[in-house]
Design brief:
4-stranded antiparallel beta sheet, alpha+beta, 4 helices, 27% helix
Length: 218
């Protein structure tokens, strides 16, 4: 792995689940099983990258609960939606975050935008006639940036202005409580994927690391 790169592994979640919801007595039991499988996927991929067995991985948590590897310098973050799983790995980027969503996910866009979007984001979305792709660009960017920062939902979503652009798939945003983060968006089929990392404001601009996408699907 290039020390200035982020590697992203993407796969269909159902490919990793040996059992389906119909095999369980209730949704709660199935959801617990799914969470276990997701952790196993993450551990397997990290272990493969480090050329060790998953049982050799030792995890700890930062102050606000973000996990990290205690015995290795490889940094990671992962995300899943109803259909997809994504894992970001980097030896260079310490504060990294990732989020994935389906563009056809059923959600009350306007209601959630009123609650979670910065006024500038909401106004931009209205100018775009409530474009669905732009909505998910803003949403996944917020999630990825907050996960990268380690604060998660402890920061009010509507105080973070991602400055997401209608056509450009990447940018820079800042918040006084977390600092400055860069991000890159990817639209892959019906999926919106966003990767974020800590950056700096500079008169020289900023440079994206090399982000390499790998499919986990057979």
């Amino acid at each position: 792995m290039d020390n200035k790169s982020i590697e992203v592994y993407i796969g269909k979640l159902n490919e990793f689940l040996k059992q389906q919801q119909k095999d369980f007595p209730d949704f709660r039991t199935f959801n617990h099983y799914k969470k276990q499988q997701i952790q196993e996927i993450k551990n397997k991929l990290i272990a493969q990258k480090l050329d060790i067995v998953p049982t050799d991985l030792v995890f700890a948590r930062h102050e606000y609960g973000k996990p990290y590897l205690l015995n290795h310098t490889l940094h990671f973050n992962h995300s899943h939606s109803q259909q997809y799983y994504a894992l970001a790995l980097s030896e260079w980027v310490k504060d990294i975050g990732i989020d994935v969503e389906e563009l056809d996910r059923k959600v009350r866009l306007d209601s959630l935008a009123h609650h979670a979007f910065h006024p500038d984001e909401y106004a931009a979305w209205q100018r775009l006639e409530q474009d669905r792709e732009y909505w998910f660009k803003v949403w996944t960017t917020k999630e990825a940036v907050l996960k990268a920062s380690g604060l998660g939902i402890r920061l009010d979503l509507n105080t973070l202005n991602t400055q997401a652009h209608p056509t450009n798939h990447g940018g820079l945003c800042s918040h006084e409580l977390i600092g400055t983060f860069a991000y890159q968006n990817f639209v892959i089929g019906n999926m919106m994927l966003t990767v974020a990392w800590r950056s700096e404001l500079s008169c020289r601009g900023f440079q994206f690391p090399s982000i390499q996408l790998h499919s986990l699907d057979a």
